[in-house]
Predict the structure of DNA-binding helix-turn-helix protein.
Amino acid sequence: MAFAKTFKALSDPVRRDILILLKDGEKKSAGEISSHFSLTDATISHHLSILKQALLIKQTKEKNYIYYELNISVFEDVMMWFSQFFNKKE
């Protein structure tokens, strides 16, 4: 797993907000995501691209629309990595 890309993607508050929008498991189009921000469509597209490169989201095309959803497996990998810091040895 490429943690550098993951943590870079997570470092931006807009990208974290996009992930929160997708956390309910419902696929959303770029337009639906964009409607929650006062940013240009190009800026949202850039953020979505970074999240895709980090594998935090995945996209599916249905007819003329592209929908985005969380890639839960990457979150699980990150949580597994973090969990090593909480295992107390006695």
Observations:
- The helical segments are 3-10, 13-22, 30-34, 41-53, 72-83.
- Strands lie at 28-29, 57-62, 65-70.
- The domain at 3-83 is CATH 1.10.10.10 (Arc Repressor Mutant, subunit A).
- The chain has a mean pLDDT of 91.
